[in-house]
Specification:
Elements lengths: L2 H14 L13 E8 L5 E4 L2 E5 L5 E4 L1 E8 L6 E7 L4 E6 L31 H21 L23
Parallel strand pairs: 1-7
Antiparallel strand pairs: 1-4, 2-3, 2-5, 5-6
Length: 169
């Protein structure tokens, strides 16, 4: 396809889009819209009709609100409502964002180094943490028993057993 054929085809698509001014709708106030996109080849849809792929020439649209959608495989779709003001160049700058890739990773999945296939680490088991808690409790109880227990005498007024000073309060 030659560049001139491509331009003629793109112009035909743009002029066929809803809201695009033609000679029969010339009495309707119009404005120009320049769409600048970070990605070449993204499909632009205006008011539900395909206007072409980026980069687009300046579009002449009827003044008023227009729904603009820009999509490209591998990026998040973009959608906005733009108010085209009459007798001026309206600019819309869009930066398409790459799609997030969410893939669950299971332990033992091929390609992930886990040792044995399907092996789950012991620290992810509920019973492991139960055993750790039980051992901790045994250590605390043994420490209290070995300390003697009765040797503790609090200092200061709280440790006083003399009841004659109680009436101070």
């Amino acid at each position: 396809m030659t560049p001139s054929t491509f331009i003629a085809l793109a112009a035909a698509l743009v002029s066929a889009a809803p809201g695009v001014a033609t000679s029969s709708t010339a009495s309707v106030p119009t404005g120009e819209l320049l769409i600048i996109c970070s990605e070449d080849g993204a499909e632009v849809t205006i008011d539900g009709a395909v206007a072409g792929s980026t980069p687009l020439p300046v579009l002449t649209l009827a003044s008023g609100p227009h729904r603009v959608e820009i999509t490209q495989p591998g990026t998040e779709p973009f959608m906005t409502i733009i108010e085209v003001r009459p007798d001026r160049l309206n600019r819309l700058e869009v930066r398409l964002i790459p799609q997030a890739i969410w893939a669950p990773i299971a332990v033992g999945e091929p390609g992930i180094e886990t040792g044995r296939q399907g092996h789950t680490p012991i620290i992810t088991r509920w019973w492991f943490w139960g055993v750790v808690a039980a051992i901790g409790a045994v250590i605390v109880v043994t420490g209290v028993q070995l300390s003697g227990g009765d040797d503790f005498v609090p200092g200061g007024e709280l440790g006083s057993t003399d009841t004659s000073t109680w009436d101070r309060f």
